[in-house]
Amino acid sequence: MASRSRTARRLTLAVLLAAVIPLAGAIYVARSMVGSVSSQLYNPRVGAELEQSLELYQELAQSKKEGMRYEATAIAAREGLRAAAILHHKPSLVQELDEIFPAYNNLVVLGVTDSEGNVLAEKKRDKPVDESTELQLEVRRPLSDKDDGPVLFAVFVTPRARFDQLDQASETVRLYRQIEAARAQVERTHLYVFALLLALTMLGAVAVGTLLARGVTRRIDQLAKATQAVGKGDLHVRVPVSGNDEITNLAEAFNTMLQEVERSRARIEFLQRMGTWQEIARRLAHEIKNPLTPIQLAVEEAHVRYQGEDERYRQLLETTLKVVQEEVATLRRLVTEFSAFARLPRAELSEADACEFLREQQRQMELFHDDESGLQTLDGDQLESVVDVVWEVPPGPLRVHMDKQMLHRVLVNLVRNAAQAVRDEHSGRKGRVRVALIAQDEQWVHLEVDDDGPGIREEMRESVFDPYITTKHDGTGLGLSIVKKIVMEHGGTIDAGSSPWGGARMTIRLPRSGTAASTAALEQFVGPSSSRRPSGRPAGGTVSDA
């Protein structure tokens, strides 16, 4: 706990310093800058210049308005327009307006009304006033000396931007005077704000540092506890993987290492057990084989030499001879299987294309007549007649290190087991077997064998690969043990599961060439085996499954 606290304190202090030191410097520079800018900006000359600018804008606006009023007065002074308006002679008014209107570019509407406001004549610009860019000013001028005489009305426009600039300049001057009046207060306010910002930053840095430290130390503590558990022999422990940093990578690498160590230990333990069972099988084969021939010969000799006429005794001899011959044949078959199991060579791995290997098996392998181990098929059954084998092979290439003859044995054993299971399940109806090669990811290749037979009970899926464990009435329980041994010598794994068809699925995982698992298999099996392997080894065949 003390170590974890020190780490947390150090991480918190580092985050605090990383946040506060640059901010403190920035606050000092900002305060100096504010003072310097304030002393240069808030001075009488700047204020006077702003006032003069505002006055210039105001004079400009006033001159624009006076100019429009002057133009309206000049239009109203035209004698022709006045005479036509007094006489209410509309054609003349229209003619006058048509002549006057083009002479003034900022005119929008020009018209004449009587004393009651009725329009006598009117001239308008082609497009209406755009209030977003233009401001309008309406000016009225009398066209006679009488109070109830006609009136000229003119609508002028000017760009809105100039008057907007006037408003902005006026607002700027007002704000300047307001801020100038509160200059000292502004500087104090900025200083208080900077101080508050520094305090909040310090608190935030402490909080963030604490959270970061807690997350880091928690994951480091999990790694430490997992390491201690591994040191005590528990390889099933795993570290939770979260985040996206170096500790995450370390946790993933730690879990991967444990998986590889656990897989290697399981492989070594299984191969050691297999070595023990092979030695037991060799001794059993030797001990059983020797007395078989004398037993059979003794019974046959007793049968041949009996010359008596006791029919019941002769029938007893016939029955005894038949039983002994059948049981001796069964024992010979068992001895042959024990001998083949005991002589099983180790894999010699070399790089090859798994896709091409399966295509070769599909074209060339005679699955149910390959019996180079010397084993005989049971009951003369032709299993190829009871199943349809479907091959699913990708175009590839998928490079793996393999022993083609040994993998041939694996494939034959699995397909034969599937076919036998289908034969026992489907009487009189053809079953299905599927062999599929799948590129699972960048690390592994999967070889799946499915069938639509009875399947394997869940409680037996782990033990079914142990020697002398079988689910068949005529099996010895060696075939799947041999399969697992060969697969493990390739650096892979094999699992029993359920098929989508309802039967069994055997899934073999083989490491791709260049991966850590493939390299480990080469180092563990190829290297050491070169000095221990027998000089001659039987050609690829099958060993009958349990």
Give a quick rundown of the structure.
Helix content is 58%, strand content 14%. It contains twelve helices and eleven strands.
Provide key terms for this protein.
12 helices; 11 strands; 4 domains; alpha+beta; single chain; four-stranded antiparallel sheet; 58% helix
CATH superfamily of the largest domain: Histidine kinase-like ATPase, C-terminal domain
Spans where pLDDT lies below 50 across 5 or more residues: 367-381, 526-546
What order do the helices and strands follow? Answer: HHHHEEEEHHHHEHEEHEEHEEH
Biggest sheet details: 5 strands, mixed
User: Alpha-carbon distance between the termini?
Assistant: 56 Å
Percentage beta strand: 5-15%
Oligomeric state of shown chains? single chain
Helical stretch tally: 12
The helical percent reads 55-70%
- What would CATH call the class of the largest domain? Alpha Beta
Average pLDDT reading: 77
What fold name stands as the CATH topology of the largest domain?
Answer: Heat Shock Protein 90
Tell me how many strands there are.
11
Number of domains: 4
Global outline = elongated
- Under the CATH scheme, the architecture of the largest domain is 2-Layer Sandwich
By helix and strand content, what is the structural category? alpha+beta
Strand order of the largest sheet: 6-8-9-11-10
Determine Rg (CA atoms, Å). 52 Å
